Amino acid sequence: MVFSWFHLAILLFLALGAGFALGPMAISKLLSPKARGGDIGMAYECGVPPLGNARARFGINYYVYALIFLAFDVDVLYLFPVAAHYHASVGWEPFVKLLIFIVFLSLSIVYFWAKGVFTWPRRIQF
Amino acid sequence: MAAQDPVLIKPDLTPEEREAGGVFIEPPVVRIKAVENVLDICRAMSLWPVTFGLACCAIEMMSASMSRFDISRFGAEVFRPSPRQSDLMLVSGTVTRKLAPAVIRLYEQMPAPRFVLALGNCAIAGGPFKFKDQYGIVEGVDKLIPVDVYVPGCPPRPEALLEGLFTLQEKLTGRRWWPEPKQGGSLNSPEQGQ
Amino acid sequence: MSAALFDGIDVDYLAKSDYAKTGLHWTVFLPAGELLAAVTALYKAEYTLEDITAIDAKEGYLVTYRFENMAAPERTALRVLVPHDAAELPSIASVFQGAEWHERETFDFYGIVFPGNPNPVPLVLPHDMTEHPLQKAEGARVSLVDMIPPGEMVRSSPRFTLYAPPPAEGGETASV
Predict the structure, then answer these.
(1) Which residue among A58, B85, C17, C105 is least packed, with the fewest CB closer than 10 Å?
(2) Would you say residue C99 has pLDDT above 60?
(3) ipTM strictly over 0.85?
(4) Which chain B residues are within 8 Å of A34, Cβ to Cβ?
(5) Where along chain C do its domains lie?
């Protein structure tokens, strides 16, 4: 396989992304003073030592929102190549295929709507 | 004082005391004067206060954050509720003995570089509540934590708080950045005065 | 409210107070044993607790419970005298939950203990403080007669001698 400028560009892009995240951390570690000692490591709770455990029980509705988000996120991922290629497609077939895909997605939206996920005060019944 | 000069709560902290959990600030690993000057200016222009209103001076602090006096012109708009996200502690109000451990803990939970502005007479030296045999207050927050700027008043006007902020910026960067206020002016006739 | 509210209770002294001068409509002196009964009667008559404070006087600590009825409107003070060396009163937090904080504050400043208080920790003073700031020195205490006006007496028990004129010998001090 030939190593071309295109591959180099991808590698540089990855390096830039990593540098964007790690660079400020490195700069901060080198250039800033550090506070030490005392209660700096204590979990913040308005100036008093923390009361109770942080592992509290969360409502199930947060989990459902995260689940829906993940599902549609993956769907959007599948739609990216479609969007890239769609202008070059010919005929009604691609449109119908895409429509079927999206109809099934929207069926799941209808299902969650009926379950009451989108109205927060209503308890989600499963 | 530049922000990176080690501010030691106990200046003669021995290594054993540091091991034992004494509070101190470690200076940075790499020290380049020009970079530090630039960083000091950046820090001075964006000091984020922690909302530490304790008493009446808190009202003046809130007033300074509102539209008429507008502390956000000078960078200190974002009052953080958590000390972990701030670098300036505006101690505005009387520190009672019951709250003293919380004040110290919150100061220790602020990351470096951190600054303290004592707003009002109570935070400076106990204020009107200092009398013989008083049982309830700490006479001045500098008995608990090191203070950088003192703003006297009972309560100081919001303009005084802003001047205190400018003094802190001058302490950080070495110069005052904002115009001096005109002396002797009058609200009703701005063309008089001076 | 009428004085009938305290009918079943063995009060020491029940009087109408001058509202314009004292801010109270009724003032009632009680022995410590009748406190809970009186407080329950006031609770049933829809009074709300305003505060619980104490006065360090010559005769002892006078713990004052102020109640008010917003509908009437009426303010009543229940006063209980406890001796300096045995400063203890039953807690009324079982009837008025808000009394818990007032009793904690009274303990902070005077050292009066309220057994039965669900949370007897200092309210406004630091936990490591042992002295009680508002206790007065012996010479600085004033008699209750000078501080609390007698008002218009409705009912009094013979053992209550606070407002009685001193005997001719001038030997005994007033006691409740």
Answers:
(1) A58
(2) yes
(3) no
(4) 25-26, 28, 111-112
(5) 3-127+138-156
